[in-house]
Catalase-related peroxidase (Azohydromonas caseinilytica), 314 residues
Amino acid sequence: QPQAPADSPATPQALVDGFEGAFGKHPGQRRGGAKGLCAEGHFLGAAAGQALSSATAFSGKRIPVVARFSVSGGNPKVSDKARNARGLALQFSLPGGERWLMANISAPMHSASTPEAMLAGLEARRLDPVTKKPDPARVKAFNEAHPEGKAQADWFAQHGVPASYAAVNYWGVHAFRFTDAQGRARYAKWVFEPAAGQELLDDEQLKALPDDFLAEELRRRVAAGPVEYRMRLQLAGPGDSLVNPAVPWPQGRESATVGRLLITRVEPGPGGACEGLVFDPLVLPRGIEASDDPVLRARSAAYAEAAARRLSGR
Ligand code: HEM
């Protein structure tokens, strides 16, 4: 596997320090997606998935899933009204002890195209010890030097805040390589789309809501019946970058619905099966491989570093 250049400042430690600097240090909590909750369900693969990948996830057999829904960032007290990403992290438990892990967000692109830009962005948003806010001049200078981040910022500015964890799309953002039983490979990106459609709130609608509504809303919804998302693969077309997660592929690329995710149970309070999990996006089943996207590659060790701190109470 390609590794980050040995002299890159974006080490796992520096990246996790960057999260702590930008969001404060909250011992025992996740450094990203700090506010969230556990849920469970299953995945049912479709024939179109089998046609694209030999991964057993697509066999059509019921695949147990542990899920974690979250609000982006390392602040466990962030408002559910924040104009940023909602997260859907999943663990598929496949036959034979294989696992497939992923952590998806409610935008089709990431804010940074490299781990180095990610680190610089976190450092630019470091909270001032006195004001407890980032220095606006540093943030402005960073944004001017990294125009690539504008696409994601615009996305959240232009799309409303989800009314429910169950009413927004979640993208995998990175390209992955899918190989079928004959060894034919295609690159694709995935998205989970709620079968009931999206529900995005404008500022007026948001005003009526408290800062914490997403967890209870999901509990009520799933108590009334399973929440379903379709998993769709968007296949790479000519010229689509396989390594830059800040640039989404054009709409209208060939796509295939490869399965259905059903969330059937939500944890009634804190805790649950997702708590101890580390949603390392490089844990992939046979039939799906990572692309050379350096951001994807950098996530794995950063998640391990964050988990080591969190699970030892730091
Ligand atoms: C270099 C880029 C990135 C770094 C360094 C990074 C780092 C992290 C860290 C340290 C955590 C906390 C893990 C834990 O405490 O267990 C986290 C959580 C998360 N990240 Fe990232 N991340 C990056 C990019 C992304 C991208 C591109 C996505 C979406 C495709 C994403 C989605 C998430 C989600 C959804 C969570 C919450 C997962 C959970 O519920 O456990 N991250 N990230």
